[in-house]
């Protein structure tokens, strides 16, 4: 299993809009690109959210994510409009796992 972690710096007053768009983008990537899903977390800094997405493998994550679904494209644009900046903060290969549902 492979995990990618992202940091999102959100513009003031845009958290709810960002989270709504993030969910739509995440659903599309799950349905069209083979991800195992994602989680979004608040940090101690109210303008920073951290997300991580799980994938079956690094190779699946690296594949071209050419999603043409109109809802995905609109949500992706909304996400970008809510951001000051974003970045991938870690790419991680799982070596041991005892995460429980």
Itemize the secondary structure elements and their pairings.
Blueprint: E1 2-10, H1 15-33, E2 37-42, E3 48-55, H2 58-62, H3 70-82, E4 83-93
Antiparallel strand pairs: 1-3, 1-4, 2-3
Helix pairs in contact: 1-3
How is this structure best described in words?
- By secondary structure, the protein is α+β, with helices and mostly antiparallel strands.
- The chain has one domain: Alpha-Beta Plaits (2-Layer Sandwich).
- 37% of the residues lie in helices and 34% in strands.
- It is built from three helices and four strands, in the order βαββααβ.
- It has helices at residues 15-33, 58-62, 70-82, and strands at residues 2-10, 37-42, 48-55, 83-93.
- It has a four-stranded antiparallel sheet with strand order 2-3-1-4.
- β2 and β3 (48-55) form a beta hairpin.
- The mean pLDDT is 95.
CATH class: Alpha Beta
Sheet with most strands: strand arrangement:
2-3-1-4
Globally, the shape reads: globular
Unreliable spans:
none
Under CATH, the topology can be stated as: Alpha-Beta Plaits
Mean of the pLDDT scores? 95
Number of separate structural domains = 1
The CATH architecture category equals 2-Layer Sandwich
Figure out the total of helices: 3
Task: Describe this structure in a few short sentences.
Helix content is 37%, strand content 34%.
Which features characterize this protein?
single chain; 101 residues; alpha+beta; Alpha-Beta Plaits; four-stranded antiparallel sheet; 4 strands; globular
């Amino acid at each position: 299993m492979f995990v990618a972690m992202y940091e999102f710096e959100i513009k003031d007053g845009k958290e709810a809009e960002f989270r709504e768009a993030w969910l739509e983008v995440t659903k599309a990537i799950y349905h069209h690109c083979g991800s195992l899903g994602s989680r979004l977390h608040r940090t101690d800094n109210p303008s920073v959210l951290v997300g991580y997405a799980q994938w079956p493998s690094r190779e699946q994550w690296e594949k071209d994510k050419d999603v043409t679904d109109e809802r995905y494209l609109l949500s992706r644009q909304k996400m970008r409009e809510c951001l000051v900046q974003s970045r991938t903060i870690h790419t991680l290969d799982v070596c041991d796992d005892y995460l429980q549902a």
